[in-house]
Automatic annotation (TrEMBL):
Main location: membrane
GO cellular component, one term: endomembrane system
Basic and acidic residues composition-biased segments: 9-20
Protein name per Swiss-Prot or TrEMBL: Integral membrane protein
Subcellular location(s) per record: Endomembrane system
GO BP annotations listed: intracellular manganese ion homeostasis
Length: 238
């Protein structure tokens, strides 16, 4: 009877709403990665093609094609990768649900060892483990073993949408700069747009991860400029 009640309780926990930090960061990470990739691939195509031809229409068509391909590629890649992670999380939940029924003492020892490893005495750690497993067995074991929250799985759809949208938006910036500026200054405008775009990406990623803002921005700018130099050189070579 106790196992039945525990299972029912766990099922209810799985239906709770509200995103965890990991779920929110999943979409943010995909968005930042997509944006950076969109910016660099488009500007790379712009300068590699521009080194081979001065035909503006050819350059724009090549850049637009790359923009669409990059956005769809990033979105599908994120969907596949995050789907695999989500599947693994669900498999872990099912495995631990069975383990709680068949090897409860082993799971109890795992939770006890977890708290002992954090400086709690063996007696207190066992008392904590017994109480937690009596109230929320599956939620407890998932938190201890996998640092997971029951009922919260990373979303492949959110990651895919964030990556696709941000890749398209990021890649559109240097392309628009190229289109809207006079032909005499189109490449300078594309370079400036790239610097601004990658700076914003670095700023946002550093802010969200509470990292070093200045270092992140400078790093992204150097990567952007290096991308331009490499692709322009390849275009000149071929």
């Amino acid at each position: 009877m106790k196992n039945v009640l525990s299972t029912v309780s766990d099922r209810r926990e799985e239906k709770k709403s509200g995103q965890t930090m990991e779920e929110r960061l999943n979409a943010i990470r995909a968005g930042i990665l997509g944006s950076n990739d969109g910016i660099l691939t488009v500007v790379g195509v712009v300068f590699s093609v521009a080194a081979a031809t001065t035909n503006r229409l050819v350059i724009v068509i090549a850049a637009l094609s790359d923009l669409l391909a990059c956005a769809l590629s990033m979105g599908s890649g994120e969907f596949a990768a995050v789907s695999s992670q989500s599947d693994s999380e669900r498999v872990a939940v099912d495995r631990e649900r069975v383990a709680l029924k068949e090897n409860f003492d082993e799971q109890l020892a795992t939770v006890q060892a977890y708290y002992e490893g954090r400086g709690v005495t063996a007696e207190t750690a066992k008392a904590i483990a017994v109480e937690l497993l009596a109230q929320k067995p599956l939620e407890t074991i998932l938190s201890v073993k996998y640092d997971m929250t029951l009922g919260h799985y990373v979303s492949p759809i959110e990651a895919s949408f964030a990556s696709t949208f941000s890749a398209a938006l990021g890649g559109a910036l240097p392309l628009l700069a190229l289109l809207l500026s006079p032909m005499k200054y189109q490449y300078i405008a594309a370079i400036l747009a790239t610097v601004v775009a990658v700076s914003l990406t670095g700023l946002i990623s550093a802010f969200l991860s509470k990292g070093m803002v200045k270092r992140a921005v400078i790093r992204n700018i150097w990567i952007g400029l290096l991308t331009i130099v490499i692709h322009f050189s390849i275009g000149k070579l071929f």
